[in-house]
Specification:
heterodimer, A: alpha+beta, 5-stranded antiparallel sheet, 5-stranded mixed sheet, elongated, B: alpha/beta, Rossmann fold, 5-stranded parallel sheet, 9 strands, about 35% helix
Chain lengths: ~400, ~220
């Protein structure tokens, strides 16, 4: 009853147009801010979500740029590798160890004559995407397991076999073939049996287990240089512009195709930033208009408020009344903006699903947290403005 | 709650009262709860000023006023509002109604400002007694001074109080209505075991005053 009488005394209707403008401004501002948070979270989902994970894209082989200046000095020093490890966008670094002896591979079968000079590389097991119980070696082993790049087999099947009139081979067939692996040592040739146990797209060289690589380099290796020239890194986001910039700054290169997302990422970053800044600026203006609106309302009812206080209305009662006049509209705007962003998110989810990209159909927790923070800011601004101008009337 | 006035003198009247004595200005005075005090004084001696100082609307004075043991200079904001809702009610000389509210709304506003002391029906009873039933739903701004004064009197009686401050409360009323209003005030004060402080220009016998003072 008291409040309905206060409503008659304190007319909040003055400056209605300003109020509507403030509401529209605030709605757009919140929509932009929530969208910025949501886009950021969606991008995060796309990068880190299990369903979107692309095992190839997350592993990059890095080496120094080879040009006339760096010829012959492309080894990576220990401190350079340490520096790579310390970058926050790099999760793990594995050293690619090359074989330091001459080797060749040939087939035993007359049906399938085959010979090629070859070199091997090895990487720590955690960087290998072929899970095979045969991927181990000790000097009692009957054969050396190898992992071949898919590219090698494709090259054989779709180019070489056609030109040489040889049969095409499936992965399964290749895995059954036992090869002769020859290592050329100063004391003559040493032979082993070798078998391909898996194929991978991750590293484009013929891989052998680290144990074998270490043993063979120790026994047959010619070069004294133990420093690696290439490392493999694991990263959450190969498209991270920071990573691309880091590689550029340090004269390092990788498979450019894998970092192509960098450009998209920059565009997303720009969109998010613009959305943020525009949203924040609009939010500030909307806050300002709201503050002015509250000030105007209180100023236009100056005499009434003074008389109410004289008659015994407490500043607390008046503040509570005014908060009830102004704050619900803010709350409503936040709820409507959240619903709008949630609807957009659901539409985006459906649209991306068709393209086999998966984002969360619901808005993220961070978007909701942002809404709560903004709600708190609005409450504080409303409350302090009302308290300030009521206490001015209470003097 | 007792009212205590210690060496109070309004700054604008300082020169005037440094030369002559007064029952109140520059004096110590303690009013016990339930006392019915009349202050008679000619124009320009500060009757309204005194009421405003006691109600803490004016602060331009030297000396101190106490509500019980509390110096009014240290009371403000919500605690001042509490005194005005529970302990001290007022009838202003200039009435101070909300001109855009109806007579009933003006009274009701005061009734529901705190936990109501009276039922809503009392408004009709009192209005009937003072002869303003017909204008209850009329905007206060359109009422005559006499009607407005009666609205202001009823409004002041809507709350609990220990002291009722009245600044020439019957100035616009005829003898008949003054009598009715005084009876009503007397009865309401008795209900609350409250006292009052009334200022006027002349002698009167509206109440059985326990104290008569001059400024």
């Amino acid at each position: 009853m008291f409040n309905s009488l206060l409503k008659k005394v304190i007319r909040t209707a003055s400056g209605r147009i300003r109020f509507i403008m403030a509401i529209i401004g605030l709605s757009i501002a919140l929509l932009l801010i929530f969208s910025a948070v949501q886009i950021e979270m969606n991008y995060h989902d796309l990068l880190e979500g299990k369903t979107n994970q692309d095992s190839v894209a997350n592993f990059l082989v890095i080496n120094k740029v080879l040009n006339s200046k760096t010829l012959g000095s492309t080894t990576l020093q220990t401190n350079e590798i340490e520096k790579i490890k310390q970058q926050k966008f790099i999760d793990d670094v594995g050293i690619l160890t090359p074989s330091r002896y001459k080797a060749s591979v040939q087939s035993y079968s007359e049906m399938f004559p085959f010979y090629t000079e070859i070199s091997f590389e090895s990487v720590p097991a955690s960087f290998i995407d072929v899970n095979n119980k045969d991927w181990k070696w000790d000097n009692q082993s009957n054969y050396i397991p190898m992992i071949a790049p898919n590219m090698f087999l494709d090259f054989y099947n779709f180019q070489f076999s056609l030109s040489q009139n040889l049969p095409q081979l499936t992965q399964e067939v290749v895995k059954m073939i036992v090869f002769k692996v020859n290592i050329h040592t100063p004391g003559g040739m040493v032979s082993f049996n070798g078998r391909v146990v898996g194929f991978s797209d991750r590293i484009s060289s013929l891989l052998v287990p680290e144990e074998f690589m270490e043993w063979a380099n120790q026994h047959y290796g010619s070069s004294q240089n133990n420093q690696p020239s290439r490392v493999i890194i694991r990263t959450k986001d190969p498209g991270n512009p920071e990573l691309v910039q880091y590689l550029k700054d340090n004269n390092l290169v990788t498979d450019a195709d894998k970092t192509r997302f960098s450009k998209y990422r920059q565009i997303v970053n720009a969109v998010v930033s613009i959305s943020w800044v525009t949203g924040a600026v609009m939010f500030l203006f909307a806050l300002l208009i709201f503050t002015l609106f509250i000030q105007l309302t209180i100023a236009s009812c100056k005499e009434e408020i003074e008389l109410l206080i004289t008659l015994g209305a407490s500043p607390f009662q008046l503040q509570r009344f005014l908060m009830r006049q102004f704050f619900p509209s803010n709350l409503l705007i936040i709820i409507i903006s959240l619903i709008a962003v949630a609807a957009l998110q659901f539409m985006l989810y459906n649209w991306l699903q068709v393209q086999h990209m998966f984002v969360n159909p619901f808005i993220s927790l961070y978007t909701i947290i942002t809404a709560f923070v903004i709600l708190l800011v609005l409450w504080i601004v409303n409350f302090t403005t009302i308290r300030k101008y009521i206490s001015l009337r209470n003097k | 709650m007792q009212l205590q006035i210690n060496q109070v003198i309004p700054i604008p009247l300082k020169d005037k009262f440094s030369l002559r004595s007064s029952d109140i200005w520059n004096n110590n005075l303690t009013l016990q709860k339930g006392e019915q005090v009349k202050i008679k004084a000619p124009s320009g001696t500060g009757k309204t000023t005194l009421i405003h100082i006691l109600y803490k609307i004016r602060m331009d004075y030297s000396g101190n006023v106490f509500y019980g043991n509390e110096n009014t200079r240290s009371i403000s904001g919500d605690s001042l509002a509490k005194y005005r809702q529970q302990n001290i009610s007022i009838i202003f000389q200039d009435l101070r109604l909300f001109s855009n509210l109806t007579a009933r709304e003006n009274i009701e506003l005061k009734r529901v400002m705190h936990t109501p002391f009276h039922d809503a029906t009392i408004i009709d009873d009192m209005s009937d007694a003072l002869g303003i039933t017909s204008i209850l739903d009329q905007r206060a701004g359109l009422c005559s001074y006499g009607e407005q004064q009666r609205i202001a009197i009823i409004r002041a009686l809507m709350q609990p109080f220990d002291w009722l401050l009245m600044d020439e409360p019957f100035s616009h009323l005829d003898a008949e209505n003054t009598k009715k209003a005084a009876l009503m005030i007397q009865s309401e004060c008795k209900k609350r075991n409250a006292g009052f402080l009334l200022t006027d220009l002349d002698e009167d016998d509206h109440f059985h005053y326990s104290k008569k003072l001059s400024l």
